[in-house]
Specification:
Blueprint: H1 18-22, H2 27-32, H3 47-53, H4 74-91, H5 107-126, H6 128-131, E1 135-136, E2 151-152, H7 158-170, H8 174-200, H9 202-214, H10 216-220, H11 230-249, H12 252-266, H13 271-285, H14 294-297, H15 299-319, H16 321-334, H17 341-345, H18 352-364, H19 367-385, H20 393-409, H21 411-416, H22 425-436, H23 441-462, H24 472-483
Length: 497
Amino acid sequence: MPDPADRPENPEYPEYPELDALFPEDEGFAAARPAPPEETPPERPTAAVAAEQRPAEPDSAGGLPPPCRFAAGRWLAIAVLVILAAGTALRMRDFFQPWKNTDPSLVLKGFGGALYGTMARNHVRYGYRNTRLAMVNCGGEREVGELANHRYLNHPPLFAVLLSLAFHAFGVHEWSARLVPLVFSALSLLMLFVVVRLVAGVVPALLAMLLMAALPMAAYYGAFVEVQSFQVMFLSLALFYFYWKWHLGRRAVFLVAMFALFFLGAGFDWPIYLLAAGLFLHHVLAPGPRGRSKAILVFLPLGVVVAFGATLVYVTKLSGTQNLGALLNALAVETTGGQSLDALFGEGRWLEWPRRLRGYFATMYTWPVLILAAVWILRAAVAGVFRRAPVASGLVFAYLCMGGGYVLLFPYGSSIHEYWSMYLIPVFCVAAACLLCEASRWTVGVGAAVLAAYLGVHAWNRFEPPIPYESSYYVQAGRALQDRTDPTDTVAVLAIG
């Protein structure tokens, strides 16, 4: 039995209850020990205190530091609305201008507006049954039987139908035509914020939205009446959002929404197919914890085939295989397989294409954004080799496939249209925003404000006057646009070939 002399002299040892069991005869020692304080039940914290004490969720921004966490709430909503209002106002600088313009450098915006505005007006004038929902490019009063000779089938038909709905609602005006891409441009700003918040966090989402609001490419062409405008951008962002929700949770409702948006986007223009390819590759390379799914591996390629096949069937039903051959030939001519760089720029001048792209990118995206984005993409690619790529790299990868693929696959269009690369806007905005967020809090705020002001000034100056287009095709079309207006209509009539 232990010796009582070995008992500790300090009686305040509540953590040694075994001493009492060893020396039960020593009641004096137990009595000398102070009684433990009475435990009182903790007060129930208020909702605000509980919210502050709740442990922080894991950082989903690919390892972004704590300064990049931002409390959601009223100030966040105010910030989003201010960015949205400022970006929309910047896009409306030439909102009420007529299509015709004496400045040759503004030819293309007038050309596209007059072309698609005329097609939409024909839907209003002749009715959808007589146009058969096809884009009909002719001015003046025509017999219904003549419309088939003026169908424009290089693109799917939904854009002109959407413009015609705006004409039905607000009348046939230049501004009512510009209203359609302007609304989708504003919706794209909001959708970019929602998507980036989902994959990278709140602060990167705010910064990406801010950059997109002021970026010259997004601002100058924000109300551009063109089939490749922001209606496809919005639908693609919404499609990616549901893809990512499905990627995280594998719920069927997200998959159904994703396919519905893809088929709707396929009715507007071709770039949505390249996004589908990007999502397919992303799922193969980064399938997530649940592994690869046949919903993507099988049904997404099948959906692409069905959508493209439905377009071909629609074209064939309009007027037989002649128009079908014209559509396939137009796609072949504008792709790398149908037209060589020597044929585009002359023998031995194939380097002219990358030179033009460099000029377009430097003007419309600016070097600061390009450098920031390139640094982040390079770091993300290196991290991806070691399977530590940031979460936002999935979004950047998908739009690199969409925007970069569109530029490379159609060198003819990307060489003469600077807006051809607009589907790279999410790539540069998201990558640059994520790199900014890796800095300290003050650097993030000051750097983003300075960069946004710089972009805004460039976007504002881009309206007067932009770089003239070298293509004589658009210069001649623009000169014809000065005189070829229909006295009975507000929208200019531009007949092609």
